[in-house]
Each structure stands twice: as C-alpha cells, then as structure tokens.
Amino acid sequence: MVAVIVYFINRSIGKKKRWFDERQQHVASRAKAAAWNATSVILLVAWAIIIIYDGISFSFFLMTGIWVAHNLSLIATSVYFNSQN
C-alpha cells in the first residue's frame, strides 16, 4: 500500500518537473525490450536445465506454460501497439 502511495506522489512530482518526456519514454521502452529479451534467454536456459536434470515432469510443463504465456503476451501487446499506429 505504501508503494502505491509513493508511486502516485512520485508520478505527480515527475509530471510537474517534466521527468516523463519523450526521451525518457524512449529510454524506458528500450530498457523494457532489452529486459524482455534477457527474460526470454533466461527462460530458455531454465527450460533446458529442467529437461536435462528433471526430465519430462511437472516442472517441464510448468516452464512450457510460462514460456507460452510469455510469448503470447508479446504477441498480444505487439498487435495492440501496432493497431495504435
């Protein structure tokens, strides 16, 4: 709850001081894209480790589900933002 309050206070101060201009939004967008790519690599490595050490078991299907959800959300957000342009 405290984090939500701090977020809104910080957001209102940032708007007054123009912290959230186009340059900052571009940097944040690129950072999120790089983090997305890193998460994809981490998930693939974890998936391979699970297959090697644990075999085809619940953890394999759990990681596969997370991987599918990860990529479906990428598809959904890509379609959404492309439709806005």
TrEMBL record:
Keywords: Membrane, Transmembrane, Transmembrane helix. This is DUF3796 domain-containing protein. It comes from the Bacteria. The chain crosses the membrane at residues 33-53, 59-81.
